[in-house]
Specification:
The protein is mainly alpha-helical. The protein has 2 domains: about 180 residues, no CATH class; about 210 residues, no CATH class. The chain has 18 helices and no strands. It is globular. The protein starts with a helix and ends in a 13-residue tail after the last helix.
């Protein structure tokens, strides 16, 4: 809980609203302004954002007892647990300041085409926390405090890691207060609706969790485990596509390159389907085997695997939509339109809540997952239709052929996986080693089949290069 609170705010500020608002403005300065003006924007945004976040951090540290009452009122039953959580929150809360400045540095590096450094940076959080668990925790009276300090140190490490690369680009900021400057006001103006949009997603998740808490015991956990598995391909590929295309789209919009803008979106959409469709097919067919192999140990028994399989299959159906949203939303953000995605997100949230209330009765926890997937398709559809309606995106030739080829390749892979997976009962009663070996060769066979089928049906790597037909 002490980590969840600053992590929740991080999703709203750092990786959500701020990145979506800053990158388009910075890219506009790259295209239309001088290097001195670009550097001034970085200095002023850093100084202004840093000052605001420092104030928020100070309030968060002082108000830690109230925050725990708000987020985890049940902790007050145990005075020691409550006090320990308060102490830990006071250590972890400054992570919000460090990670937000890290997101700013990452936005600058991404806009300059240096994608590797921001991509590697989150790994440092995991490494630092592992080091803290092994090194600090055993030396403390309350071992869990070692993890809290691990979060604090990780924030500094992540920010410090990016400093040399900013210095190399001559964009290391010298923070200055710039509230009244045009660039800062432009970023803040875009941030407000984006911040609300990020909140919509969190409210959606909260509604699902609240309803799941009224279902049979275990429902929240079944949803959590299946959601983690869907987030794996989404986090690796979907987020990567969105991260790569946002700076490029922003520069193309600033340079009035309408054809290039449309082609970049087209390229990203093809990649989203090329990766998202087979991931959907694989997760749907292999839901039980994957859950059994990864989690069927200790208290996570065969019933938990069976129940989690239902929600994983329902979540997997929406994976393509989740990826398409990651690609289509930057088409609005790059044009400095953060209001439209928020509007569509609210419509999807209302639809999700309605479908949850309908589907939860016949499908229980799986109904919550299915409602989320259906709402994602609605959100993606609204984004797509409105990009087309505004003539922002014009599909390139060859989509009918591409979709036919994609369908054939996935059919071949699906048949191999379905034949090789067998019945779930076999997995539930197999040893851990047997499950791991079976899943390893099955995934290898499926991936190999898909790659060979993609080439066999005529989808060539050169067709998927940016700007190539």
């Amino acid at each position: 809980m002490a980590f969840r609170i600053p992590n929740f705010l991080r999703r709203l500020f750092a990786e959500g609203a701020f990145s979506q608002a800053f990158v388009p403005v910075f890219s506009e300065y790259q295209t239309q302004r001088s290097p001195a003006e670009m550097k001034e924007l970085v200095d002023q945004v850093t100084g202004t954002l840093g000052a605001i976040l420092f104030a928020i951090t100070a309030v968060g540290v002082l108000a830690a007892p109230l925050l725990i009452l708000l987020f985890a009122p049940g902790f007050t039953v145990d005075a020691n647990k409550y006090q320990l959580t308060v102490e830990m929150l006071r250590i972890t809360f400054p992570y919000l300041l460090f990670i937000s400045l890290t997101a700013l540095a990452g936005g600058v590096l991404n806009s300059c085409g240096k994608f590797a450094i921001p991509a590697i940076t989150p790994v440092l959080l995991n490494l630092t926390m592992i080091a803290a668990a092994l090194g600090l925790a055993p030396r403390m009276a309350q071992p869990v405090m070692g993890l809290a300090w691990g979060v604090f140190i990780a924030g500094i490490v992540q920010l410090g890691f990016q400093v040399p690369f900013l210095l190399r680009l001559k964009l290391l900021p010298r923070p200055r207060w710039g509230w009244a400057s045009q660039g800062v006001q432009q970023v803040l103006k875009l941030m407000l609706p984006a911040l609300f949009g990020s909140s919509v997603a969190q409210v959606n998740l909260l509604i699902d969790t609240l309803i799941a808490s009224f279902l049979v015991s275990g429902s929240v956990s079944w949803l959590y485990y299946s959601d983690r598995l869907v987030e794996f391909p989404l986090g690796i590929f979907g987020v990567a596509l969105g991260t790569v295309i946002l700076p490029k789209l922003s520069r193309q919009h600033a340079g009035a390159e309408t054809d290039g803008f449309s082609q970049t979106l087209d390229w990203a959409l093809r990649w989203a389907l090329l990766i998202g469709v087979p991931a959907t097919v694989a997760l749907t067919i292999l839901a039980g085997p994957i859950l059994s192999t990864l989690f069927q140990y200790g208290e996570f028994d065969a019933r938990d695997v069976t129940m989690s399989t239902r929600s994983l299959m329902a979540f997997a159906l929406g994976l393509v939509a989740f990826m398409l949203i990651k690609v289509l939303a930057p088409g609005f953000y790059a044009r400095q339109d953060t209001r439209s995605p928020v509007k569509y997100g609210i419509i999807a949230m209302v639809a999700n809540t309605t479908m949850v209330l309908i589907l939860v009765w016949p499908l229980a926890h799986a109904g919550l997952a299915l409602a989320t997937s259906l709402a994602a398709f609605l959100n993606a559809g609204l984004l797509f239709v409105n990009l087309r309606r505004r003539n922002v995106y014009q599909p390139r030739a060859g989509w009918a052929t591409f979709l036919t080829q994609l369908g054939a390749a996935n059919l071949a892979m699906g048949l191999v996986l379905a034949f090789g997976a067998g019945h779930l009962e076999q997995w539930l009663h197999a040893s851990a080693g047997a499950r791991l070996w079976h899943l390893t060769w099955l995934v290898t066979a499926g991936a190999g089949t898909y790659l060979l089928a993609v080439l066999a049906v005529g989808i060539k790597p050169r067709h998927l290069l940016m700007g190539r037909g």
